[in-house]
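SAMPLE LOG
Freezer: B-3
Tube label: C17
Construct: single chain, 397 aa
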Amino acid sequence: MPIHAPRLSREGYNLQRSVMRDLLRFAVDPNVISLAGGLPASECLPLDSLKECLDTVLTRDGPRALQYSPQHLGLRAWIADYMGSRGVSCTAEEVFITNGNQHGLAILSRLFLDPGQPAVIEEVTFTGIHQITGGRDAELRTVPTDLDSGVVVESFEEALKASPSPRLAVLITDFHNPLGVSIAEEKRAELARLAAKYEVPLIEDDPYAPLRFRGRPLLPIKAYDEAGMVFYLGSFSKMLAPALRLGWIVAPAELMPRITTLRESFDLESSTLFQRAVAEFLSQGLLESHLKQITGAHRERCDTMLGALEEHLSDVARWSKPDGGVFVWVYLPEGLDTTEMFHQAIERRVAYIPGGVFSVDGSTKNALRLNFSNVQPEAIEEGVARLADVIRAALQP
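STRUCTURE (predicted):
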């Protein structure tokens, strides 16, 4: 019997499988030093504390913890207070719980962006942003990002004022994935002003801000938003544990009914159990010590990676020097293709993510992303040494 493929929607047709997921298949071999992932330090995940919080919730709340329920008001109130500590004045009514930042971006993209309409994103950015805006068949206008100070504001304004007007813009604020850079403090108020001036919703993707291990925290772009045109995305996935799949949107209260209805059209609600468990974790005041532990581990590993890069690659590469997050971005000489080089790296039992994966047009083929957070320091040193051997071999005429 012949098999007939059903006709796909435009979005279904345009969706692209993540190349990064395909590459990560090679990195799960225990004999490979994987500098390719993006996970927090495994040994710092709060296993015992979360287990106790889950036990407390199930004992105290019984079957209610396992039923559908409205978003947890206590959790939303905590998020509003947390955002207030970061300079963003909002109420629990302006907080919407999501299944993480990519989920929040998917919701807001459907809220603002019709298929084929313009959207502004960075030339080099997280692959999930490509997938969501590309899946909407958006006309992508890309802007460059400076490796020292973040998005180039002048280029961002040019993209906003071009005709037809874009329907949304997406920027990663702190410890960019994949670049590791943070948007400079002096640029943030101007970005909020431009979003208001051109009436373009600016989605601020900021999951890594709590993972700062050097320097003072910077206010998010949302803190400078006077017009309600900046939509903030935050996440517990990086702050606590990826498998919780919990994050939030900060948006004007008058849009919440539309956001709620849109979200209900495809997955109803985030896990009641995990919302209650995270709220319990936070109410017990466990977050500060947890973040101190995890950022301490990340700082040591980042410093180890930067030192190893300096030792082995200072004459042929340049790289970002992050003050937090989990990634370092490395530029190699023009002409090298890190996708082609990847299989040689696997043969040397070290893995990374090729830079071309993150650029809209694949132009950053001579770059690569390294992760330091979930790798022991001695493995980082050995992994960078192996990678340097692969790079130098690829540079041979």
